[in-house]
Amino acid sequence: MFFFYLGFLLIWFVVLWLVVKGIMRGMESRHKSVITTAIIAVAFPLPLADEIVGAIQFSALCKSQVLYKAPDMAERKGTNLIFIAHEKVEIKGAALPMTREVWEYVGESDRSLLFRYAVIKADQGFLARTVRLNDGGNPLIFTGVCYPKERKAIFSEYNIIN
After folding, report:
1. How far is Cα 115 from Cα 104, in angstroms, rounded to an integer?
2. Helices (H), 1-147
3. How far, CA to CA in Å, does 76 sit from each of 40, 52, 90, 104, 152?
4. CA-CA distance, 118 to 96, in Å (whole number)?
């Protein structure tokens, strides 16, 4: 897959170079090479522009992630928990298609809530969806899934039974 991406980037660079050279051919300027370089530098990342903006938005959403913990969770270590997933909700206004899904863990015996957090998932950008570069559904330039960091304690201190 690496060679496919590399080949795509090389082909895009050559096409971009030829288009810019064609445009600059008719211009009389002693700064032709500087203008050509500037245009290529701006236009080269355009196929991934939505993923670049989406990565910035995704990072901001991930930083705002919080994990709800029940006040009595320290006393309940080792208890059995039941996992409950809620419906995925689309995040509006993002550069990439993104969803948010709430995951809850409740006690098996009394069904009281012990943990709750949201899982944020970003899908592929326009280029990857159009050309089918990546069948996994994740963006090309970042992982695309975000959990709160503290969630690892759930799996080491509690028993998830489903």
Report:
1. 6
2. 2-25, 32-43, 49-63, 126-131
3. 59, 43, 34, 16, 16
4. 18
